[in-house]
Amino acid sequence: MTAKKSMTLAELWEYLDEKYQWIAMDEDKRIFAYTKQPKTEINTWYGCCPIEIPFTISDMNPDWKQSLVERPKDWSKYVGCLGEFWDGIGVRACGVLINYNSNSEYHFIDMNGWIWANFRPYTVAEIEQLRDIAKEIGL
Fold first, then answer.
1. Alpha helices (runs of H) in the chain, residue ranges in sequence order
2. Against a cut of 0.70, is the pTM above it?
């Protein structure tokens, strides 16, 4: 069996028809694109008009329950947002997006001035979870 081709979320968004606005991975690691925001049920996502993506997504959250990603419309709207940064060698960080440079391989600049290849804004649920953790440790 031949291994699936791998691509990044950014590459997939360029390839995928504009009508698909959401991507999610099921527990069995199958990835689907949806025209409307899907919901979870048991170990899968379900929603309107799914198509299976025949690739692995290298920068997708490996936890299927946290894998839902909305198509970015304009990265500038995420400036000031809390999210996850990562590069191609496994380094990850939580931070605030300060700037976006479309003319570089490392597009995203965090609040420390570090540049990153990838960024995804945290969901409301993830931010609430971080707040709960901060309270637990006294921050």
1. 9-15, 124-136
2. no
